[in-house]
Amino acid sequence: MNGVSSGVMISLGAYFLVMIGIGIYxxxxxxxxxxxxxxxxxxxxxxxxxxxxxxxxxxxxxxLGLPGAMYADGVVSAWIAxxxxxxxxxxxxxxxxxxxxxxxxxxxxxxxxxxxxNRFEDKSHLLxxxxxxxxxxxxxxxxxxxxxxxxxxxxxxxxxxxxxxxWVTAGVVVVYTLFGGFLAVSMTDFxxxxxxxxxxxxxxxxxxxxxxxxxxxxxxxxxIDPSMLDITSGMTALGIISLLxxxxxxxxxxxxxxxxxxxxxxxxxxxARNIGMSWMIISLIGACVTGIAGRAYVQKTAMTLDDPxxxxxxxxxxxxxxxxxxxxxxxxxxAIMSTISxxxxxxxxxxxxxxxxxxxxxxxxxxxxxxxxxxxxIVVAVVAIMLAxxxxxxxxxxxxxxxxxxxxAFGPLVIFSLTWRGMNRNGAVAGMVVGALTVILWVYGPxxxxxxxxxxxxxxxxxxxxxxxxxIFAVSTMTGGPRPSVSAKYxxxxxxxxx
Length: 499
Prior knowledge:
The structure is a single chain. The protein is mainly α. It has one domain (3-395): Sodium/glucose cotransporter (Up-down Bundle), CATH 1.20.1730. The protein has 20 helices and two strands. It has helices spanning 3-29, 34-39, 46-58, 65-73, 78-105, 112-119, 126-157, 162-211, 214-224, 237-244, 254-262, 269-301, 311-318, 322-360, 366-387, 395-419, 425-444, 454-457, 461-478, 484-497; strands spanning 448-449, 452-453. Strand 1 and strand 2 (452-453) form a beta hairpin. Helix 3 crosses helix 8. The protein starts with a helix and ends with a helix.
């Protein structure tokens, strides 16, 4: 093994040991019950909540997908970052405080399907089952997307096979998630968020310095293609709406909003918001600059770059000492692993609470539910590895489809369940089904607009979100509104929110 590979492996090995160590620590610290394993006992600090939400949100697309889009298309891709920033901010304002209070008011709901069922007093279990199906379906795809990033990292940077990268990435995540549950996931997310922030600051700075500064980099891009510096170049109004619409997805992402359920107090939400938004803005700017600087660097060095999503890897290999390169590669793994672990835990929690306990063992003791949750982590990870077996999969495309699915199915449902007392169970079911089916048909159906696939013409989350909202209002209104007891829970939430 050469010096470069040795240095990188030392850094990555240390990183893996730290993550596993945190998982073991969390195993002994948390309570061995479902609230402890799946929600950390609702005792997360604002800083851990914020960085855990951010790290689990960004995944490998922050260091691979977004820089790759900026490299290929120029600053027009920054519309995604703008939309995400607005969406995340509104998520902290609208959803975070209300969800923290309401999930306790709604019979101490631990999972999102739990909350939906309790919020609307759904004795038929229809809401719980449909939401569990949506979570299992879209999160398995989402987890596979994250694993694709891990496979690409090992293949392009460590000269290991793509398949080896999949199994190593999934293996380490499974170990600490399996043992430490939500507490381990949140604590590792915090560490991973710090690593990601450092990487998204240091890489673009060093890249710009190597290119001679901002002015020289800008001139180099102009020489390649001046339109790359025009944020409206080639964009239609629908194109801009499609990119901004990524922000709508935040309201319906279970792995993100579950952090709001776990924060120790609603009074801590503003602090978490300030930390989380600062982290996010710095990271997104760094990712965008990395992609643009990468285009100038590849031109300057006359190298060949087959996959734009590997531009961050190029910088780590050519501009840094091997030990630092290993640390920066760990940042990519941090982004990937933080998302995978959160997704695995959400899916396993849903499989446990909303499938196993509901249909197979209604009286299952807490310890058995935790065991089923751990087994589910392994099963979902293996399925995701199988789905991620194609190394040509695009991280950004896979993520965008799953993101749209959750945003349309759950986004309007979450918002209106927290802000409109007139919503009822029938409206919730209609909104969820309409949102999910719209995205599936929009992305995978054989439909076109002027010869262009619908999802290329307009991002699927837009029609999905709109039609879901209409379904919620129409069906809730036509079926007579909520029961009096549901309205009473809503009033209790509002009182507790204003204390």
